[in-house]
Amino acid sequence: MIKLLISSFVLLMFTCNDTDENQPVEENNPTETTQRIASEESKKLSNEETAFLAFYQSFTKAIETKEAAKVNAFVDEVFGVYFIESNGAMPSFTRQYDVAKFKSVREELFFSLNFKDLQQTPVFEELPKIICDATPYDKQGCFAKKINPFVNDEFWYVTDLNEKEKQAISVFAEKIDFTVINTSTGKFYFTKNGDTWKIGFIDLRVPCEA
């Protein structure tokens, strides 16, 4: 009787082990793993970051339509949008209220600009740093952060703009709320007035280029 009980117990143990080994492992399922990671990432975003992400995606979709009126809806009615480019040794600022009227220092129109990978979803983390090594930045992709890098970097004062224009940029720059750096496209600075974001500055300069 004892031998029979021992044999039954051993058989039961082997059966349980076989059942566990045949169970699918969650980590080996790419779809479930991707969904879990995406869910965890979304939980990390604050309400403000989630709202800004929706706004930013609407902004990039407007550019992809190549319809100036849709893009202009994201431009501040009072300050417009400033395009920053390299003009020799110093940066140049060009203000526009209608993106269709913009022409770069290289004679490029707005919708002809290098908006490569513009549809990338920004990751909310530290912005990439300029290193001028094998690549201009220390990491590649699209990144966003609630930060105003213009606060202590009033580089427009070294341009040939008149004092009135410089003062206007200073006032507008103080409103910067979120910064997005797409290492394939450029830097986008978004201002906020109340509950509404607007595109304030688009920096088209390529880091490390003379």
Structure description:
Residues 1-27 and 29-40 have low confidence and may be disordered. β5 and β6 form a beta hairpin. The chain contains five helices and seven strands. It starts with a helix and ends in a 7-residue tail after the last strand. Strands 2-1-7-6-5-4-3 form a seven-stranded mixed β-sheet. The chain has helices at residues 2-21, 30-44, 47-65, 68-72, 163-173, and strands at residues 81-87, 90-96, 123-124, 142-145, 176-182, 186-193, 196-203. The chain has 210 residues and is an alpha/beta fold. The chain is globular.
Q: Low-confidence stretches at least 5 residues in length (pLDDT < 50)?
A: 1-27, 29-40
User: Strand order within the widest sheet?
Assistant: 2-1-7-6-5-4-3
Structural class based on helices, strands and sheet pairing: alpha/beta
H/E topology pattern: HHHHEEEEHEEE
Strand content: 15-25%
Shape: globular
Short key terms for the protein model shown above:
single chain; 210 residues; alpha/beta; 5 helices
Summarize this entry quickly.
With 210 residues, the protein is α/β, with parallel strands linked by helices. 33% of the residues lie in helices and 20% in strands. The chain has a seven-stranded mixed β-sheet with strand order 2-1-7-6-5-4-3.
Write the layout of secondary structure elements.
Blueprint: H1 2-21, H2 30-44, H3 47-65, H4 68-72, E1 81-87, E2 90-96, E3 123-124, E4 142-145, H5 163-173, E5 176-182, E6 186-193, E7 196-203
Parallel strand pairs: 1-7, 3-4
Antiparallel strand pairs: 1-2, 4-5, 5-6, 6-7
